[in-house]
Amino acid sequence: MTDDIIGRYENVSKFYGSMAVVKNLNLDIRRGEFLSLLGPSGSGKTTTLMMLAGLQSPSSGHIFLNGRPIETTPPHRRNIGVVFQNYALFPHMTIAENLAYPLKARRMARADIAQRVQRGLEMVKLQPLAQRRPTELSGGQQQRVALARALVFEPSIVLLDEPLGALDRQLRETMQLELKQLHRETGVTMVYVTHDQAEAMTMSDRVAVFNDGKLLQCAPPPEIYDRPTSAFVAEFVGESNRLSGAVAAVDEGGCTVTTDAGIAIRTRPQPGLQRGQAVFVYLRPERILVGGAAAACENRHEAPIADAIFLGDHTRLRIELPGNRDFTIKQNFFGETRPPDLGDRIVFGWTAEAPQVVPV
Ligand SMILES: Nc1ncnc2c1ncn2[C@@H]1O[C@H](COP(=O)(O)OP(=O)(O)O)[C@@H](O)[C@H]1O
Ligand SMILES: [Mg+2]
Hints:
By secondary structure, the protein is an alpha+beta fold.
């Protein structure tokens, strides 16, 4: 284990009775990164986080922190900060006392505590509210206190379990930016659980996508978006057109898939594909080019527009493609380009770069 890896799950499984909720997890946490665990409810994200915090123990496998196995280290000795969705602030203490609590528990000198509490309050811009109690704060402010309390003892990792889940959308987006800024300023490693793919994509250095207790893919957001390696990831993150088919040819230049409805799709080389293999082809709606822009595309079609929805910054066109009657194209029609009418035939296409082919 090298210096730039702060934490590691090695073949970690967790059973509740006979039910496996985390299945043979192998995952490295890089020092200083913002790592998101993304997946639907029940996919094992919280359990994964809790095993690192020491609040759950693995049924098998090992977890390392700074190169050492941590199974025998009690939670309060792991130097990990934790933030939950339901703030869990101490209601009978003031904000300042809430921040001081983890420092007192670590038997820090009184003067140091005062200084750090002050710094913690500044960090989340809550100095004026230091003497209030949690019930006198808004949800967003309470969550800032929880954040400061998790950071104030300078932990090596902060674990956040859907910390913004209870906030309304606008406040959530503001807090996302604040949290990212805190991450940059402190340089602390953050592991962030969310079921919100947009949140994971905007905040993270890397996203680990979970489904049904399994880690499916862990990569930077652009790679998760453009190069999903499974149907689940392709469909969970962003919007895609799906065409089902089989690999017809693999050659040096790329690969040809023939869809079940008989459309030949040319793609860039994609590792691991075999002739005859059943696959899904995913195409992002914004990667489909229209009109003259489609002229140079390896894949080109012509069809009538079945639906057009104007959304201000873009227009969604629906095409009834054989095998996918909801084939969606996202286009801007600015300036001289007239938005097409329903029933107009348009030429559209995509380059061999655009499709992502995954095994069924
Ligand atoms: N203490 C527990 N006892 C039994 N089953 C549990 C317990 N905690 C979680 N589970 C189950 O484990 C699965 C994964 O849960 P969890 O890790 O909380 O998922 P997520 O955070 O992704 O929603 C779920 O099916 C959940 O019901
Ligand atoms: Mg959870």
